[in-house]
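Quick one: co-fold with aspartic acid.
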Amino acid sequence: MKKTLVALAAVVLSGAAMAWPEKPITIVVPFAAGGPTDKVARDFAVAMQKNIPNSTVIVENVGGAGGTLGAGRVAKAAADGHTFLLHHIGMATSPALYRNLPYKTLDDFEYIGMINDVPMTLVGRTTLPANNYAELVKWLEANKGKINLANAGLGAASHLCGLLFQQAIKIDMTTIPYKGTGPAMTDLLGGQVDLMCDQTTNTTAQIAGGKVKAFAVTSSRRLSTPGLNNLPTLDESGLKGFNVGVWHGLYAPKGTPAPVLTRVNTALKAALKDPAFVGSMESLGAVIINDARNNPAEHKRFVEAEINKWGPVIKAAGQYAD
Ligand code: ASP
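Sure, here it is.
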């Protein structure tokens, strides 16, 4: 009996292995194209495709509502192993921000593994008169009520960072939401908005090109990445304890067949060792997640811990959406 079951399981497994993928695999990015999560996803998709024979891996941008629209799309997608979600810290901040989230973060997804940690920077339009953080604080004090802060909507990392920044510095700003910080960056470059917190995967090139002014990193330690290593932390600049960063993980709709999840996790682990992917991420300040953390159990445990960490902070800030 036991032998029959084992044999049956082997047939099912090899059947799934042979039959999958049957069509292009889609990775949904819950933000607009041309932004930092999109950059991670597009580079990751190339590395993942190399590690799944006969596959085509495409990226679909489903931006809006701080990443919750795209996450909701994947929660309701067919669990046939062809739709995945690449999302960031918003997976853990949205449950506290939305009264009616269209999915259950811990129940409606299969957790596959984590991908990277990405630091954030505080950047501004080049026409701002301030040239460093101390001068920025003076400018903010002098311009209360007139400051625009771009973000990617309630639930986005830029929203969380901007919320914490306003609280820490005790100055309210007008937040301007976009479908992602890709389009927000376009407006920052054009001088239509004043400031933004954004991942280094979106800001590094703009900082290097002198297209935005960079005032600080939001991590607790300075970065070692060339081009970012001269930036002070907000913590050392007077906002003691300020520390916010982004992490990314890969998810599938609940019920996706286990053999497919195993193969995607194997492909994820291989992608995280792919020299092109690693090189691209490292040049943009991102840190690849190590093998101990890129498995489903650790991924889910981490997201739950992040929900518990950020929930009270967000609730204390009194930010909600329906
Ligand atoms: N950086 C965005 C955020 O604020 C997301 C994105 O556009 O990738 O979360």
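If it helps, The chain has two domains: 22-117+246-317, 119-217.
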